[in-house]
Amino acid sequence: MTLFAAGALVFPGAAVFAAPEPPTEAQQVMAAVEKALQRHAGDVHACFGRALADRLDVAGKLELDVTVGAGGNVKSSEVTAKSDAVPEGLAACVREASSTWQLEGIEPGASVVLPFTFAGQAHQFVVNAADVPARPEARGKVVPPFQVKILADRTNVRARHMAVTHLTIAPANRVAMHRHAESAKILFVLSGAARVLGPKGQDPVKLSEGDAVFLPRGYPHVIENMGRQIPAVMLQVFSPAGPELVYRDPKDPLGRAAFEVLRGAAPGAPPGAELAVVRKDEGASSPLAGGKGQRRLVFDPSATGDASLALEVAEFAPGSSLPRQLHPSSEAFMWVVSGGGVVKAGAEDVSFGAGHAVFVPAGQPYTPRFEGEAPTVAVRLFAPAGPEHAPGQPASAPGAPASNPKTPSAAPAVSPQPGNNR
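Request: output the structure for the sequence above.
Response:
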């Protein structure tokens, strides 16, 4: 016997003087289903949140046919209908979660259809990296040479000026020689040790935890894990966005053009192009959050000759906060290395913690608060550059060419944007 529960019915209030009619079987089923869905709404919401971490356009309907066993416990669950825009992962997550549910008031052996509707979202401010799928997917014990998690792009946070990925290179592996004709790139090492190999005649650049390198547009390079025991993990930032498209779809023509794999002899670097490298302890610190925090400016246009990106590393004491932030033409991104807090964006208060990415679009006011017992350490990005030069901050970053030093080409003037007092 299969019972279909279409959802709760709402009856207008009315004065009743006669003894109430006993509920029908259909009403009992709907009441039991509604109660179960309310009780387990957190499970469904968690599955939906994991799906949104990869893309904001998740929407549509999903139906599960569950068989009820003794005590109302779900005995089995099966997906019977699904909209095309509902990812397989979301359907599988809800189905797996439902196996632990209980539908009180349903007789053992009965089957009940549970309907779910998911609405697309306009935005999201926090992405948990643990919820983002790794590409390419590992198959069994076979680990790919490298894997990427897309933390911020046009698909999952509607980013327009940057794309940020979490890149993990397996021990003794590499990302083969490639270049990005139209995008500048920053690599910031989170753990492990890496080496960047450039065109012939360029010295290799070795990177350890906390080091960063800026690669100008069109610069051919290899990213190599120097270790044989542990992965090399880093943030990989593109501006403008484009190369990350190839991770979502390796056949995407725009992505393949933006992420050009170079076979054979590597071409030389574009005229005047130089890597800029900043080590973990380089750069002067300046105060933030009313003196309860500090930041180290790593890259800005004065160091890179490119106004599309700026990067800083910041630390905030527990209980500190930044004043209301507003960047009219720049997007803001924050990777939380440790600690956590809450970001208020519009009417929303969204929690974040270690391993979370916070993204705020241009023109969106926001206020971060830092909570807990330990300091919060974060890597912050702005695209285009500008907000990093709030009043009272250092005028330039310490970045310097890695080899064959040359004076960076004149960068476009960058003026402090209003509303960025720190």
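The longest helix spans residues 25-39.
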